[in-house]
Amino acid sequence: MAMRLHEGDYVPDERGGFETVSGKDALGQRVLMKLKARRGAFPFMPTFGSRLWLLPREKASARQRAAEQYVSEALADEEEITVKDVTVSEREGELLVSVGLSMGGETFTVSLSI
Fold first, then answer.
1. Position 104 confidence tier, pLDDT thresholds 50, 70, 90
2. Most buried in the list 4, 12, 56, 57, measured by CB within 10 Å?
3. Which helix (H) or strand (E) holds 63?
4. Could you tell me the pTM of the whole model?
5. CATH at residue 56
């Protein structure tokens, strides 16, 4: 069980505490946190995070392969999930990354913008 995050902040509940998440929701939240955090930004956790923030520097033709590599690298320690697919698209000057995952026979997608 983990506390629910929304845009980097804990979500308060009606009792003065914080909302919690578990199962697939907690996993999705953890995956998004790993993908959004810059790899190497936490001194005591040098392998936490991803290098997806580097995608805009890549040539358009190399972005797909780079995104696949960066996602695999960031989620390498998540033994219970399998990365099924990674797609990169561009909309209004922003890169959108969508990651298809599976866990215990269930599939789900997480998306983020770069």
1. confident
2. 4
3. helix 63-74
4. 0.81
5. 3.10.450.40
Residues 48, 7: Cα–Cα separation, whole Å: 19
Which of 105, 89, 50 is CA-nearest to residue 72? 50
Query: Which tokens in the block code for residue 94?
Result: 């922003």
Task: Determine what percent of the chain falls in helix, strand and coil, rounding each to the nearest 5.
Answer: 30, 35, 35
Task: Identify how many contiguous H helices and E strands the chain contains and give both numbers.
Answer: 2, 7
pLDDT: is 40 or 64 the higher one? 64
DSSP 46: T
| Cβ(10)–Cβ(4) below 8 Å | yes
